[in-house]
Amino acid sequence: MSTEIILKDLIKKFGDHTVIQDLSATIQRGEFFTLLGSSGCGKTTLLRMIAGFNSVESGTISFNGRIINDMQPNERNIGMVFQNYAIFPHMNAFDNVAYGLKQRKIAKNEIKQRVMEALEVVKIADLAERMPTNMSGGQQQRVALARALVIKPDVLLMDEPLSNLDAKLRIEMRSAIRGLQQEFGITTVYVTHDQEETLAVSDRIAVMKNGEIQQIGTPEEVFRTPSNLFVANFIGKANAFQGEIEEISGNGMRIRIADGTSVFASVQNDHASTGQQVTVTARPNAIMFAKDSGIDAVIRSAHFLGMTYQYTVETMQGITAEVQSDAAYGTLCSVGSKVKLELNENRINVFDTEERAFAKVGSGNA
Amino acid sequence: MRKKAKKLNFWNVMLLIACFFFLIFFIYPVANILKESMLDKSGSFSLAAFKKFWSRKYYTSAIWNSLAVSSVSTIFSCILGFLFAYFVTTVKIRGMNLVNTLLMVSFVSPPFIGAYSWIVLAGRNGVLTSLLNNLFHTRLNGIYGFWGIVLVFSVKMVPLVYLYVKGALKNMDNSLLEAAENMGGRRWGIVLKIMMPLVMPTLLASMLLVFMRCFADFGTPMLIGEGYRTLPVLVYNTFVSDVGKDVSFAAAISVIMIVFTAAIFLIQRYVTSKMTVEMSALHPVSPRKESGAKNVLVHAYVYFLTFMAILPLLVIFYNSFQKTNGIMFVDGFSLDSYRKAFDRMGTAIVNTFTYSTIAIIIILILGVTIGYLTIRRKNALTGMLDTVVMFPYIVPGSVMGIALLVAFNKRPLLLTGTAVIMLLAYILRRLPYTVRSSAGFLKQINPSIDEASLSLGATSFTTLRSITLPMMAPGVISGALMSWITVVTELSSTIFLNVTATQTLTIAIYTEVVRTNFGTASALSMILCASTTVVLMIFFKLTGKKEIDVG
Fold it and tell me: What is the largest CA-CA distance in chain A?
């Protein structure tokens, strides 16, 4: 049976500086839960609190209902994978993986069997005798994974485990990690600042900023219906346009953007009022070049990226936006040409002056 | 929670032991010297000792003498060492491995052996002197005094500067030089405008180190100085030879010396902190094969300096097998000197190896513990300890000797004449290096390695035993070998502290040289140099390095 982690009213301070601000969250059994945020947002601090390396100033952390605040790190039965792998450099792969089992006073032949199994699982059984200095980053990462998994941990914690690998290996390892996590069903807390990685591996994501969770949700929820402007900007690119509510109707609102153009957004309008200032965001691929009407803009840069065309455009109001379109057909528009921008109304988000989202109607709650 | 309290106690106990050790065996003796320097015979406050020092040119000249020999030697050895490093980095030298090994062997030999060999070679009755006098019918009096000291120091310190500068040159990417050449720089222009500035921080750091060593060295000026009084010589004469044994005056000179070395130390700190240039080379400069006159000149330079560095050892090697009659060398070879050395100085040999081994074990335990405390258990007290532990570095050996002697010559801590006081001198003088290097190794171990061990279920003590210490071991052990070499070649402190029963090889050699008993002195020196060379080879074997860590 895997573990449910409940974080309740957590506060962490370093001196006078509050790093974690009254944070609560529930991480479900067997879930792949990602803490996403830029550096200094408190995600690693929170992970280290769960691991027991950082003390808890206030609030509780519990595993399956048992409060573990005062438990030593070595008593928590946690598997941890570190950013720099933290492979013991004076031990070969086998001894690295066996280390945790030896601490548990497990019989020699069982250790041997379990270590070999673990190395098998991460596909480096043939490197058992090899010293870390003779291993690539990816191989070291696999040793680190095997070492964390072999002790049958209640919880698996990973602190930016892929950030030191090259791009290709990162993609390979992230699917390996996801696969293993699914196979063993271990509750996993994963820390990263890489939004693409997050979307690829997570069951649920907590986006963090200044020690607070901005939004918790599935990858689709967080991407499609960000709860505030920060989340919208942090996960994927969001082009922002200033606007004003022109008219409120039963199932949404009409917003005037720039001069003349307007869009209709299907969002809840209980707290909206005509004339209110709002921000409308659209992903690069939710903006199209229109034939006749739209926001006037000039193409500042144009790139063909194989699958897509990538443009940077500047509107008459001086707003810079990114536009992406399918490159399966058509030709690359040239720099300097004048275009009109049309927003895909189904895929826009609206935020009030406090940067909070107006909830979408009908979609996004999947 | 109970476990946590126990863990803290263990380290606190170690911390207290370390603090008490320093308080009793270092702070107290040095503070005591300061106190003695400001007391008169009746025991009341007086600055008479300082006044006496400053009032007579006989004394003050020692300061200028010390500064002069140290400065001139530093300049010489830095120019020679820099050129040496530059040549071997850029030009392919035949037999470079041998050159390196010879330089290292010379570097780990005791400094005063150079002085004594140069007396044999170029002294009043030296081989070279008589040769020149016969050839040109001159009456050269041999190389003594200022230039003698400068010669010995300069030759001795070249390997140190060379190793430092070569380290820096290794970190300089070849593309920097190619870029300079590409933009039209000329060879010596590039050396002056590109190489020199990049190497300058290293060069300055090594200059100060050389200066410090020359300034504090006792054996060389004592032997070859012949009345050229530097501060360590003056302090020795005042303390040991003077009839009245003016403790207060010796203390005053000690204080003046500490002021100077502290100033040098602070300048060195400031310079190295301000001037570091971050460099790391993808393509280090590699030596090129040269031809023609340039090739010959460079080879001549490198071989000549290497020969000069190793010459003292060749001299004592030869002398040690020469037949002697009393204190005179006569024609023919024999093992008499060795026989005499073992017969008369057997205890010195045994003492040297016993003391150095015990000292190294204690240095290792204390050094690693303090290093660990200052890095992994940071608090106000360990921070203070971290600073205090470096103080012995600025106390010249002779001052340390006097301080220990004056502090522990009465009950309840009557240590004078015991092996303990010799061990203390060794430990205090070498501990700063071990603490620094242990701390350095610990800093390189990412804390997440410890955390990985903890999260895998190990206690913090198991982590220390099975992860941290084994990871530090290679570095610490190679450091210990180098410490051993410096301990067995130590003279400045122990010359004050030894009695006949606690004599060591260096003291025995010094005594024999003073008695002009060169045969025995040579045999003893060979025994000492052979053992440092063996340890040096073990160091190379263990670390796989071709050079030693200097400083």
Answer: 77
